[in-house]
């Protein structure tokens, strides 16, 4: 039973519960109109202490399409946190008004803290470089639609693997399925955190390799997950400038890839995927955007007990 549950990281859901949400999302994709109104009378709060376009708007669109209403903020400077109010008190207040809260915060662990004080389900919409579970639902829905399942794939994560919360969440999720292999492509300074290597891959005997050049490995991949180098995660702008153009996917590199490889990206894109790739049928990152709304519709309906 998912009603009343918090979603802080993908591991909060069993594989059966993941399937329950994704199956509902599949049904919504086929016939979205039959789900309009299932959350009538319910209220979603979107608390975004950090900038967002797709995640915030897809949450709002999801709730509105389910027949509910939305309140919240997209600028922490317009809230009482500027007066020194604690996150705990903000959550105590907002959860008194609403049925479910989607929160993004730049501090790792903020969503977990919020869940300890909330009267309603907390959905982690991103906490620093830690987790982004609803992006993972989006990614899984996209992978299943194009690949038919989650087993037996070679997955390449490319770009900023150190700060990329979408990478961490998806890698954890896909590591739970059989016969997957991972190729980690990044400069050494942006390599995946050690805890991911030890606690996710090595602890579970999951094959992985590390490579600094995308061209060397793109031909082996079934799924290529590109990420931007995130300027907002750097303390030193010179480091960002030095690394921001480390990986750019273009038609020349794509010639080395399998014909059925898919390209995913959590967006926003800066320059790591050339626009010339957008028309390639393997480029699914804008399809991901649409699937994100359906995944969040399914999640909201389940956590609020509407379905």
Spatial order of the strands in the main sheet?
7-6-5-8-9
Shape, per Cα inertia axes: globular
Spell the H/E element sequence.
HEHEHEHEHEHEHEHEHHEH
**Low-pLDDT residue intervals, each spanning 5 or more residues:** none
DSSP helical segment count: 11
Q: Provide the helix percentage.
A: 25-40%
Compute the gyration radius: what is it?
Answer: 19 Å
N-to-C terminal Cα separation, in Å? Answer: 10 Å
Major sheet attributes: 5 strands, parallel
Structural class, by secondary structure, is alpha/beta
Textual characterization of the structure:
Catalyzes the condensation of carbamoyl phosphate and aspartate to form carbamoyl aspartate and inorganic phosphate, the committed step in the de novo pyrimidine nucleotide biosynthesis pathway. GO terms for molecular function: amino acid binding; aspartate carbamoyltransferase activity. Heterododecamer (2C3:3R2) of six catalytic PyrB chains organized as two trimers (C3), and six regulatory PyrI chains organized as three dimers (R2). It comes from Candidatus Gallitreponema excrementavium. With 307 residues, the protein is α/β, with parallel strands linked by helices. It is 36% helix and 14% strand. It contains eleven helices and nine strands. The chain has a five-stranded parallel beta sheet. Helix 1 packs across helix 11, helix 5 packs across helix 6 and helix 5 crosses helix 11. It is globular and about 55 Å long. The relative contact order is 0.16. The model has no long low-confidence stretch (mean pLDDT 91).
């Amino acid at each position: 039973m998912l009603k009343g549950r918090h979603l802080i990281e993908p591991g909060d859901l069993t594989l059966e519960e993941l399937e329950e949400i994704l199956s509902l999302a599949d049904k919504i994709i086929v016939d979205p109109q039959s789900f309009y109104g299932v959350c009538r009378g319910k209220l979603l709060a979107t608390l975004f202490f950090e900038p967002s376009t797709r995640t915030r708007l897809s949450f709002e669109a999801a709730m509105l399409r389910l027949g509910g209403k939305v309140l919240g903020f997209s600028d922490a400077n317009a809230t009482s946190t500027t007066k020194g109010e604690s996150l705990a008190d903000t959550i105590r207040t907002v959860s008194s008004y609403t049925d479910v809260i989607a929160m993004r915060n730049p501090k790792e662990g903020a969503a977990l803290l919020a869940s300890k004080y909330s009267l309603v389900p907390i959905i982690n919409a991103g906490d620093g470089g830690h987790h982004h579970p609803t992006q993972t639902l989006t990614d899984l829905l996209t992978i299943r639609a194009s690949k038919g399942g989650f087993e037996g794939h070679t997955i390449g994560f490319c770009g900023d693997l150190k700060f990329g919360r979408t990478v961490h969440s998806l890698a954890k999720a896909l590591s739970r399925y059989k016969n997957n292999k991972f190729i980690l492509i990044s400069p050494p300074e942006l390599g995946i955190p050690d805890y991911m290597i030890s606690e996710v891959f090595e602890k579970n005997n999951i094959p992985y390799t590390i490579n600094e050049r995308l061209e060397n490995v793109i031909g082996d991949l079934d799924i290529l997950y590109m990420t931007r180098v995130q300027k907002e995660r750097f303390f030193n702008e010179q480091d960002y400038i030095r690394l921001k153009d480390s990986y750019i996917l273009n038609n020349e590199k794509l010639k080395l890839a399998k014909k059925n490889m898919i390209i995913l990206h959590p967006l926003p894109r800066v320059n790591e995927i050339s626009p010339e790739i957008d028309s390639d049928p393997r480029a699914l990152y804008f399809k991901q955007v649409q699937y994100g709304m359906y995944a969040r519709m399914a999640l909201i309906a389940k956590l609020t007990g509407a379905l």
